Amino acid sequence: MEATEKNKTYVEDIDxxxxxxxxxxxPSFSSGKxxxxxxxxxxxxxxxxxxxxxxxxxxxxxxxxxxxxxxWGPNLDGLDMNNIVTYVRPDSRLNTTWExxxxxxxxxxxxxGIPQAERTSLAGVGAQYDSEVVYHNVRDEVxxxxxxxxxxxxxxxEHEDMVKDHFMKLVTPSDHKFAALHGAVWxxxxxxxxxxxxxxxxxxxxYFRLNAPGAGQFEHTLIIVxxxxxxxxxxxxxxxxxxxxxxxxxxxxxxxxxxxxxxYSTIENWSKxxxxxxxxxxxxxxxxxxxxxxxxxxxxVSYLYPMSILKGENSKMEYTGITFAGKGQNxxxxxxxxxxxxxxxSHMNAKSISKDxxxxxxxxxxxxxxxxxxxxxxxxxxxxxxxxxxxxxxxPVMDIRSDEVDVGxxxxxxxxxxxxxxxLMSRGMxxxxxxxxxxxxxxxxxxxxxxxxxxxxxxxxxxxxMEGSIx
Length: 471
Known about the structure:
Helices cover 24% and strands 36% of the residues. By secondary structure, it is an alpha/beta fold. The longest helix has 17 residues, at 431-447. The chain is globular.
């Protein structure tokens, strides 16, 4: 095949040059490789944990050592915890003004567009570098509403009772091996509390950057949106590519109060040496709504299934997600929902694109309890394969324990249609333009839900992944 002919049908990988710039590593402290009780205790001492948190970490490690690796998803043989550094503290304290952040760290976030986003469109920003938050700030007008937005370590010191009442109560260390790992070595992350009736009109954002090779990032995000309050929270992640495995095992716990609304948007752009084993869960009270918007564009392997527990009557969940898997990627993503009360509803809309032998798997789990009468749930999954070497699977699970419900599942998997390409070319398009239009059209219903207007870095990511360079 001639080069010109090959180029017509080749969809290039994302240009990661902006994300792959590596900073010279200058940690002020590193736990060293491995996972032992001594290392966990050292992390706890370095962070000056209260006694209950130190005991929580040690107990989590005991649970971790008892639980086996999952055997039902992508292969994890390349992940060896003996070669992972679980805590890397950058040479920076927590700063509340951008000018105070060390130049090398600041330059990394400047390249990713974080300060510009804050200055133009965000109510507050937290920036984590390796294992610690290096910058956190929130607008005065948001603070004046009684909204708390701070890093998790500050939250433990300043709002200890509230944190203790909620920390890893939704996602417990016994849930799975990497939840236990998180409980043992977690560091950094964000804490948000929105008081009753308060509407935060513009989003808050946290950005997580893992720079160190062979390291793990284990941030904890805890958000409480009280009765009748509203919030949009944006989470962004990236890392440069190394020749050794990196690990991300963060945890997100969302508490949505009565008649409250929370939109949680995530763009994950980890490099292709990353094992992304993140856990996210929300509980929704009467009349409340949780909205998940998820974009998964990187990592070597992903296990990612945001879960919603519709605890209160008339509570709702919506999930909108897109996954892009290229060469060497096995992205296992999906969504879970538990209908635990009457008149609850869930709607899940997921799309995936795979190319160059990439694997996309979508798993959905819908459970409707016997007392959740008159509930509704719908799952829609569409997958597009750009060549014959790629793979896409859909694995739905439904556990329905009430007859008075309305449940539906729809899945479509296919390749780019030669007939469609021929038709578009007959209307004057080149083959390149035709394929670009098909890919863009497939992604557009999902991409339009992503918060492009709020973060320059996210806008750049979506353009690179979804538009790509076809031709």
